[in-house]
Structure formats: C-alpha cells, structure tokens
C-alpha cells in the first residue's frame, strides 16, 4: 500500500488529537533530554485543554496536523511573534512520531507554514529548541541560525535550556 500524507489546519474540535500526540511523542523522544518528571510537568502546563484553547483563541496560534493514511502522526503550531512585530513569526511546536523522522515530513510542515505566512509579508520565523535536542541539526540543515541562548524558568524548579534559532530571510521551498 502506498502511504498518503496530508497537512491541514486543525479543526476547533480536534484539540484532543494534539493532546494525544504530544503525550505519545514527548514520552518517546524527550527522556534522553529531560527527566520524566519535567516531561509530565510540561505536558500538563502546555497541553492541557485550557492551555491549548488559550493558545488558539487568545494567542493566535495556528495548528497544523500531519495525517498519514487517515491517522494523525504529527503537528506544528505557529503565530505572529509576540508583540506583533510585522513580518516576524514564531514556530511554537513541530512534532512527529519518531518512526516518521527522516522522511521529509518536518520539512514539508515548515514549507506549509512558510507558504501560509509569506502572503502576509513574513520575513523571518524563529523558534526555541533544547540545546541537547538532536533536531538542532535538522533546523541547521534547513538554514536556521542560532541567534541567542536562553534559560527559561517554567516553575517547580524546571527550566528550558534553549537556543533561539531564526530563518531569515525566509525561503520557499526549503
């Protein structure tokens, strides 16, 4: 059977799909980078139903789903950068099931986002990535550069130790 893939905007009644995928993906990918306790804390902080609704309805995040043969296998979210800086966007999330890594789906997701934001005059997109996350190489390969480092206190003694990366100027396709 040939696999068919689709990338589409998340419908408002599909938040549970993001919650399920994040639970699965984070527990598979992040134990080599952060503790299970921090994973559980972050999942509850970022992916509870109210937090996701706030991201969509108040913060203006657009979520995209990646679907393989009618089964959701990943997602991304993006928005205008905080402060509404004209032309500057932020990639908040990009996650795929680990068995889907290396198939070009992450690049396809980013291309879809860039395709969506370019008509608005987008000039750059930035993201945070954990300093020890292997996807750092993925972003560098696509042309993102490290522009700064930051340690963010997220509560209960946990921090995010990240690089801030930027793709500027935007290019399409990647």
Question: Would you give an account of this structure?
Answer:
By secondary structure, the protein is of the alpha+beta class. The protein has a domain at 5-121: Gcn5-related N-acetyltransferase (GNAT) (Aminopeptidase), CATH 3.40.630.30. 32% of the residues lie in helices and 34% in strands. It has 5 helices and 7 strands. The protein has helices spanning 15-29, 36-47, 49-57, 105-117, 135-141, and strands at 5-9, 62-68, 71-80, 88-96, 124-130, 145-155, 158-167. The protein has a 7-stranded mixed beta sheet with strand order 1-2-3-4-5-7-6, sandwiched between helices. β2 (62-68) and β3 (71-80) form a beta hairpin. α1 packs antiparallel against α2.
What's this model, at a glance?
This protein is 32% helix and 34% strand. It is built from five helices and seven strands. A hairpin with a 2-residue loop joins strand 2 (62-68) and strand 3 (71-80).
Question: What are the SSEs and their pairings?
Answer:
Blueprint (H helix, E strand, L loop, with lengths): L4 E5 L5 H15 L6 H12 L1 H9 L4 E7 L2 E10 L7 E9 L8 H13 L6 E7 L4 H7 L3 E11 L2 E10 L7
Parallel strand pairs: 4-5
Antiparallel strand pairs: 1-2, 2-3, 3-4, 5-7, 6-7
Helix pairs in contact: 1-2
Spatial shape? globular
| Strand neighbour order, sheet with most strands | 1-2-3-4-5-7-6
Structural class: alpha+beta
Superfamily at the CATH H level of the domain at 5-121? Gcn5-related N-acetyltransferase (GNAT)
């Amino acid at each position: 059977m040939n696999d068919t893939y689709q990338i589409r905007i998340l419908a408002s009644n599909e938040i549970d799909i993001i919650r399920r995928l994040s639970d699965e993906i984070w527990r598979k990918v992040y134990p080599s980078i952060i503790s299970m306790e921090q994973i559980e804390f972050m999942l509850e902080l970022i992916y509870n139903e109210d937090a996701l609704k706030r991201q969509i309805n108040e913060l203006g995040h657009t979520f995209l789903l990646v679907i393989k043969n009618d089964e959701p296998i990943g997602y991304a979210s993006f928005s205008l950068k905080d402060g509404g800086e004209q032309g500057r966007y932020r990639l908040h999330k990009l996650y795929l099931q680990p068995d889907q890594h290396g198939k070009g789906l992450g690049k396809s997701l980013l291309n879809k986002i860039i395709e969506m934001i370019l008509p608005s005059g987008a000039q750059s997109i930035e993201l945070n990535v954990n300093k020890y996350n292997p996807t750092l190489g993925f972003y560098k390969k696509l042309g993102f550069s490290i522009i700064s480092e930051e340690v963010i206190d997220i509560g209960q003694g946990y921090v995010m130790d990240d690089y801030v990366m930027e793709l500027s100027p935007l290019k399409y396709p990647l």
